[in-house]
From TrEMBL:
It holds the Pfam family TPR_7. Residues 433-483 are annotated as: Disordered. SMART domains: TPR. This is Tetratricopeptide TPR_2 repeat protein. Keywords: TPR repeat. TPR repeats lie at residues 321-354. Signal peptide: none annotated. Residues 433-442, 463-483 have a biased composition (Low complexity). It comes from Truepera radiovictrix (strain DSM 17093 / CIP 108686 / LMG 22925 / RQ-24).
């Protein structure tokens, strides 16, 4: 508390002295005596030079186009530089800058040092006494030391478990895991909470070991709701639907679990996928594979859906318009714009009335720098989907950039566009995107991607931080994302 007060006071004093120095015209406004024409020319010069530097760094453009753009920008820059030289010869010299305020500058430097030092001290506190996720400390250093001394004096099961839970609350996963393993080896029967938390910790390293620990925890406490829930999620993520169904059914039958709408919904989803998976395995027809992929897509499991759509395109029907469209959409969101456009063009050739496909085709063309083609696609979409305000603005932007012969947008520029069309692409590289099917009528087998192999374990609701030993929760630092 005292440290926070000192930091706040120092920050206020820093601001009090810094503002007059950093923003002198806010306190003593004076007319801007600089030549406005010279300012405009300097800004235009800086913009052109910056564009030339960016162009040299863009390796994604053909050399011929880069050379043409560079010549155009250099010609404009030379013209601006000549005009700037002539203007500077004609214009009167600018007034000298005001001298710095000595005393305030010294005080400003001293206060900046105080702030930097306080920040360094705060950031270098032991992890067990710092707050977790911006909240209060999970456990104080003094309390953890007390637990360590108690376990050293009397290494009983109760003291060891309390210390392991202390490490858990301090987000020290390695120390907690080592002590939980010791407890399971020395205490008979092993406590259910130790087995459960070992399962949570191993989820980040070895899924098979995690399942073994969670099953042991369930055997030790068959009605623990958190263990049953996480077991169901782990089995669901591994596509072991029968085991997931059994775990969630046990959850709903356990005391306190009946009537849990969220678990009931997960159970129904698992039953639906169990039937679809069984049908696709027994008869991998285009109809069965499409039904399975569509279910993944509609439930938000887009990567799993693309995995099945690839299988559909390679094994059953290479001309399936919906599969091509949705694969293209994911490729576009993943940053594979040229591949996405090729696949989306194929989908539109098969189903010209699929306007969602045309919307994403415009996104892929825009992100690839083909602004005229992007505007054309979006205009067709806009006529079919009247009232979509996003598209009118996108069309105007595309037409403007096409007229300027602008470079393809950077990732930072994509972040300013509608998130549902560009958000993932703004932060994704090619390696993060699924492999692209070929633009020919058939999709080769080696384009299959298997995103399910790296699927995480879903979390129930918001992220859960480690809490007191009496409660059960997820492992420190582990995030479970519902598919």
């Amino acid at each position: 508390m005292n440290l926070l007060f000192v930091l706040l006071l120092a920050a206020l004093l820093f601001a009090y002295l810094a503002i007059p120095l950093l923003f002198p015209r806010q306190s003593d406004p004076l007319p801007d005596l600089r030549d406005p024409v010279t300012q405009d020319l300097e800004e235009e010069r800086d913009a052109l030079l910056r564009a030339i530097r960016e162009l040299d760094a863009r390796t994604d453009l053909p050399e011929a186009r880069r050379a043409a753009l560079r010549g155009r920008y250099e010609a404009k820059a030379a013209k601006v530089l000549r005009a700037l030289d002539e203007r500077q010869r004609e214009a009167p010299p600018e007034p000298p800058a005001a001298p710095p305020r000595g005393l305030a500058a010294v005080a400003l430097t001293l206060l900046a040092g105080v702030l930097v030092g306080a920040t360094f001290v705060t950031n270098n506190l032991p992890p067990e006494v710092r707050s977790v996720d911006g909240g209060p400390p999970a456990i104080t250093g003094r309390e953890l030391q007390r637990l360590e001394r108690a376990a050293a004096r009397d290494p009983s099961a109760a003291n060891l478990l309390a210390l392991a839970d202390g490490y858990w609350r301090a987000d020290n996963g390695d120390a907690a895991e080592a002590l939980y393993v010791r407890i399971t080896q020395e205490v008979s029967p092993p406590p259910a909470v130790a087995l459960q938390r070992l399962g949570f910790l191993r989820l980040q390293v070895n899924l098979a070991e995690a399942v073994q620990y969670l099953e042991l925890a369930r055997n030790a406490d068959p009605e623990d709701l958190e263990t049953l829930y996480i077991l169901g999620e782990v089995h669901y993520a591994s596509r072991n639907m029968e085991a997931a169904i059994e775990a969630w059914e046990a959850y709903l039958e356990a005391p306190g679990g009946a009537g849990d709408a969220e678990v009931a919904a997960r159970l129904q989803l698992a039953r639906t996928f169990a039937a679809l998976l069984a049908a696709a395995e027994a008869d991998p027809s285009a109809e069965n594979l499409a039904a399975l992929a569509d279910a993944h897509w509609e439930s938000g499991e887009r990567d799993r859906a693309v995995d099945v759509y690839f299988r559909l395109l390679t094994e059953a029907d290479p001309h399936h318009a919906t599969a091509l469209s949705r694969v293209g959409q994911q490729l576009s969101l993943g940053g594979r714009f040229d591949d996405a456009a090729a696949v989306l063009e194929r989908a539109l050739a098969l189903d010209p009335q699929d306007h969602a496909t045309r919307l994403y085709l415009g996104s892929a063309r825009f992100a690839a720098g083909d602004y005229a083609a992007a505007a054309d696609a979006w205009e067709v979409y806009a006529r079919a989907a009247a009232g979509d305000e996003r598209v009118a603005e996108l069309i105007a932007t595309a037409r403007e950039r096409a007229a300027e012969d602008a470079l393809p947008p950077t990732q930072e520029e994509l972040q300013d566009l509608p998130a549902e069309l560009f958000a993932e692409a703004a932060g994704a590289g090619a390696a993060a995107a699924p492999a692209a099917p070929a633009a020919s009528s058939a999709v080769p087998d080696d384009t299959l991607a298997h995103p399910t192999e790296d699927a995480g374990t879903p979390e129930r609701g918001a992220e859960t931080a480690p809490v007191a030993p009496a409660e059960t929760t997820a492992a420190p630092g582990t995030t479970y994302t519902t598919p």
